[in-house]
Amino acid sequence: MATVTTPMLPRRVHNALTDLALVGPATLAMLCLIFVPAVLVAVLSFTDYQFGAKAFNWIGLENYVELFTDRTGKRAVFNTLYYAAIVIPCSMILSLLVAMGVHQVASWNKTCANIFRTSFFLPVAATLVAMATVWEMLLHPTLGLVNIVLDMIGIGGERWLSDRKLVLTTLAAIGVWETVGYNMVLFLAGLASIPRHLYEAAEIDGADRGWERFWTVTWPMLGPTTLFVMVITATRSFRVFETVATLTKGGPAFASDTLVYAMYREGFIYFKAGYASAITMVFFIFVFALTMLKVVVAERKVHYR
Amino acid sequence: MNARTYTSRALTVFFLTIGAAILLLPFFWMVSLSLKTPEEIFSPELTFFPGSFYFDNYIKAFQQVPLHRFLLNGVMVCGGILFFQMMFAVPCAYALAQRQFAGRTIVFGMVLAGLLVPYHVTAVPIFLGLAQLQLLNTYAALVLPFVASVFGIFLFRQFMATLPPDLIDAARVDGLSEMAIVWRIAFPAAWPAATTFAIFSIVAHWNDLFWPMIVISDADLATPPQGILFFRDEESGSDVGPLMAAATVVTTPLVLLFLIAQRWFIQGVTMSGIKG
How many CA atoms lie within 13 A of A221 on its CB side? Predict the structure, then answer.
């Protein structure tokens, strides 16, 4: 068959040119937008480069030392871990409970289960920045619904977003609100893949109470899904930015500063490219380690998605 | 149905309803506040429903800030990103799935490695590059960094690898060029992957705040979430009604998309778990 577009070229050359036309643009874009910048950020993290400066110095690990010894730097690392430490277990437990409930409802009324699933997933679909401004209203110290209701039942309200001791927990609660629906969907997929006959077998063996069936069948069978959900929730928690930027800007007094927000502030408000690159690298190492854990789990083909 | 089953069902529905009510409360409150008069909002008395539908908040929201402009920017940016992502990803995915060529393993290896890199990681160097090219505060700054979607290449490759080779061979015999096969045979056949990817991409970029905050300071180019922030900071909390109206307007498109195309939506969004 004669080639259509360039009949003069030998077939081998033509094929190579076709491959280049198909793969070349994407490969070049990946290099320019992912791999070269990723290498550059690692290189920059060892410099004191500032945006707009004519020159820079190699300063070795100084940026990293600053991040882990400076009070603000340490805070950002600690706060991110603290935030994740609340969001991961709370979101996972709640979403598993919701998923089991919705799964049970689905066994006798599909429409009802779908309505629940839609409701719980809605926060995932919504624009987080817009919803954060709503949370700001709900949590307003005097006019917010939360404090008014707490007042009515006799518990004093709090300054949820301006109390240094509370602010991170408040942001984590919004993080849980935002991720429960997402994790529920993952757990629902896991629950759907558990064969029914295992429950019947467990019942014959005498595990006829709900919680007995849970510990003998559901929990062990969900193990891989649970690990998968944990890694995804952890990754999402480490990336927390929108709520911080909208509600607290890292304050009060850096009490809600997180890694990605610190990266934004140092890099793009104070223009300290070198220091921001070091923060980026630390963030990257956290996320990379988690992703590798997920890859290892996926490789063993033990999750049920 | 025995009493125990009945009780357990009732309890499940009861607790799920409470949970759903708490989760949906912010949505209800947002719409409710957006329809209340300023007097109602700032009255010490707690009312759940607005006394009347006070649409002035919506009119004010569009008058006080260029809300229509933010929405248009969001559509342009999401549309532009999706268009270029497809232009780059689909041919590459096709070649990876259906052709043998030198370097195939390397390119696919790059795709897999790229999945491990969150887009925050490349922010500093890409910002430097855009500044060098004098592209800060342009649409290009919002679109360009995202045109190489490794997730898109990965998704389309997985799907196109399942296309029957006969289909492709038949098209070659008919004299179609490879580029024509990509767009006229392989791409339509990979429509489910395209839908999933489109939703994934649109949701990610409509909602994104991190990148617009870095490259855009001109309010005329603000994306919807950034517009909400401009609005909020300008009004410093005094104009709650219009702010909630703006929040409702910005949130509605994706919520509608979700309600209309639930299955695709959930698939598209949960797929993002693959990406780091």
Answer: 21
The single-letter DSSP state of residue A34 is I
User: B242 preceded by cis ω (within 30°)?
Assistant: no
For residue B176, list chain A residues with Cβ-Cβ distance below 8 A.
Answer: 4
Q: Do A135 and B177 touch (CB under 8 A)?
A: no
Nearest residue on chain A to B239, judged by CA atoms?
A137
Q: What is the ipTM of this complex?
A: 0.89
What is the residue extent of each domain of chain B? 3-54, 59-274
Q: How far is B65 from chain A (nearest CA, A)?
A: 15
What would you measure as the largest C-alpha separation in chain B, in angstroms? 77
pLDDT digits (tens, 9 = 90+) for A88-115: 999 999 999 999 999 989 888 888 889 9
SS3 labels along B155-182: HHHHHHCCCCHHHHHHHHHCCCCHHHHH
Chain CA centroid to CA A204, Å: 41
* CATH homologous superfamily, domain B59-274: MetI-like (1.10.3720.10)
Residue contact A185–B209, C-beta within 8 A: no
| Spatial distance between the Cα atoms of B57 and A152, rounded to a whole number of angstroms | 29
Contacts of residue A186 in chain B, CB cutoff 8 Å? 270, 273
How far B197 CA sits from the closest chain A CA (Å)? Answer: 15
Residue A24: inside a domain, yes or no?
A: no
Do the beta carbons of residue A19 and residue B101 sit within 8 Å?
yes
What CATH number corresponds to the domain at position A180?
1.10.3720.10
Range of the structural domain that residue A118 is part of: 71-299
Answer yes or no: is A200 within a domain. Answer: yes
pLDDT, tens only, A133-164: 999 989 988 888 888 888 888 887 788 888 88
pTM: 0.89
Closest chain A CA to residue B87: A26
C-alpha–C-alpha distance, residues B119 and B122, integer Å = 6
